[in-house]
Fold these 4 entries.
Entry 1:
Amino acid sequence: MGLISEVLLLPFAPVRGSAWAIRQALSEAERIYYDPATVRAELAQLEARLEAGEMDEEEFDRMEDELLDRLEIGLRNGV
């Protein structure tokens, strides 16, 4: 039965390959997004922008909270 199903599903191989590639790309993007080193670098950039006067305290606090949430998720999931 395995050989027959493979032959019948052969026309769908490009679709299955594309789906696999998309899953891999999404997985890698998520890994980078939650990577603690990446989040820490973004926090440093955010602080530099605040010190340079490019943003106010309210915007800084909001963005810092988002980054800290990402850092917590990354550390919890062992990314």
Entry 2:
Amino acid sequence: MSDGKLVGIVLVSHSAEVAASVAELAKRLAGGAPAVPVAPAGGTAGGGLGTSAELISAAAAAVDRGVGVAVLTDLGSAVLTVKALLAEGDELPDGTRLVDAPFLEGAVAAVVTAATGADLDAVEAAATEAYGYRKV
């Protein structure tokens, strides 16, 4: 448990609309989870498709409560951008972790788990476990 502080979640997509929609859906499916700090970081600063290191850094700073930040991404260059930011060492809050999880299902699992006050390891495990969700 995190002494009342919740793990932050950043959702990085190539599309601002997709990132915002997944954030909203995850929070709603988690019963609203109003306390969970979730931030979308989608598209470029100019509103186009792509990823923006600046938007990702700002989103991570906005959700950081000192107990870790889980970053979930959609596609290739989003992953590469987050990895580059992590390699810089000072662009993201301490305790920021790139989580290998499906974007939508992982986001829902991460938000639900973070809402319980779980630590970053548990949030990452729940999101990663979403790879095993079967639909048929």
Entry 3:
Amino acid sequence: MDNGETPPAEMCSLREVLDLVGDKWAIRVLVQLGSGPRRFSELERALDGVSRRMLSLTLRGLERNGLVTRKIYPEVPPRVEYTMTPHAAELDEPLHALSAWAAKHRAKVGAARQAYDGVTA
């Protein structure tokens, strides 16, 4: 295409993009990176319950999709930092709002589950 548009074969579907940013670990990684660059070990400590493998896969996926950049410093041992890209930074406010909503309503969600499970059991 000569009008500067991305050819359709290279575009992601809306579902693919929403699946990417809707992933449990991706959201939590992006929230952590919203306050600045982080090393792998810092992310691992901050994300309770994530395995090294899942964190590695999540970071690789975010990097592949242009939401995170990885910078390797030529040190011994090598130091690697992850940072949100500028367009991923646009997600910072909505992700924090979503996280705040989840924290505010988690007791209500838990109570609703318990009530539903009691009725349908």
Entry 4:
Amino acid sequence: MSTVADKLARKSSSKTTAKQVRLRLVYVDFWSALKLSFLAAVALAIVTIVTTLLVFMVIKTTGLITKLDDLFTAFDDNFTLSTYVDLPQVMAFAAIVAILNLIVVTVLGAVIAGIYNLMVKVTGGLLVGFTSN
């Protein structure tokens, strides 16, 4: 009776010739690069918002904001940091940063694809090797 491990050992012992192919990347599709950079930017925006929320919760839980309030009231009785730094304000700021990052990363991906397509005319493209197993 043969086991799966025996079958895999016999299969791996047989010599198969892997065909190797060298291809040159000479064009990056603009819309594909735009879609891919947009999806990466959406992931970055989600990470930005979640990270900001977690960091704010840690700062709020440790009482750092109230200690800074005490420090600032020693210098000025009218200024309190907690009126400016609260969950709605922090999350609004995180959302604005995430939206700006979304726009910048999407545009940057499209620009880089266009620059690569222009560089290919000078350099001839990127040589990539592939093999089939």
